[in-house]
Design the sequence.
């Protein structure tokens, strides 16, 4: 949303920032789903190429991914490559509302069921602990902070992790914001990758 005049929160209080984020989230999601399917696909492919050129995901044994919804970048092809190289893949599952998520082992052809918000999840509970996460972006800012769907599940999961995974936010450059007005509970991504942008980078494993 570079160059677009944006409203600001009325104050730095969490209530005002939360209301502002809700407004930005609605605007960004509407903008994303309004993009032509071909545009989203092309931008997503460019973002994934940039990601693969910037980091070797095979150095992470277990990769946490997401099931794409509402125009998100589809990363299941990256997951298949990871599995073919001998890695492990997990999908996030909300076991308890307003709590950290679990990641359950997934591979193509696995039996699936509907989870929270009707998002597909593995039918069999087989928990894995990701060494790296691919995390979808609704919005993002240059400081590496991610605007998500507002449930706080990734923040809770990362805050509770005994060993923090390497976190890669993946999305479209159209969804850039000057700032998301980060709060103490917000956890920045280690790396953000879009069709035009790379923020951050690998750390030692």
Sequence:
């Amino acid at each position: 949303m570079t160059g677009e005049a944006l409203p600001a929160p009325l104050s730095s209080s969490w209530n005002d920032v939360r209301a502002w984020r809700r407004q930005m989230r609605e605007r960004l999601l509407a903008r994303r789903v309004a993009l032509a399917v071909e545009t989203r696909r092309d931008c997503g492919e460019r973002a994934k190429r940039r990601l693969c050129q910037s980091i070797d995901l095979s150095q992470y044994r277990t990769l946490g991914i997401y099931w794409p919804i509402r125009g998100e970048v589809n990363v299941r092809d990256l997951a298949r490559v990871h599995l073919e190289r001998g890695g492990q893949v997990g999908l996030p599952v909300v076991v308890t509302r307003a709590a950290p998520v679990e990641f359950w082992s997934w591979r193509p052809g696995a039996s699936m069921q509907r989870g929270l918000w009707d998002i597909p999840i593995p039918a069999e509970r087989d928990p894995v602990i990701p060494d790296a996460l691919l995390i979808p972006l609704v919005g993002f800012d240059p400081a590496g902070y991610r605007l998500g769907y507002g449930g706080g599940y990734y923040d809770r999961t990362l805050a509770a992790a005994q060993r923090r995974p390497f976190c890669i936010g993946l999305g479209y450059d159209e969804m850039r914001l000057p700032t998301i007005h980060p709060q103490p509970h917000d956890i920045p991504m280690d790396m953000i990758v879009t069709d035009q942008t790379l923020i951050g980078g690998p750390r030692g494993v």
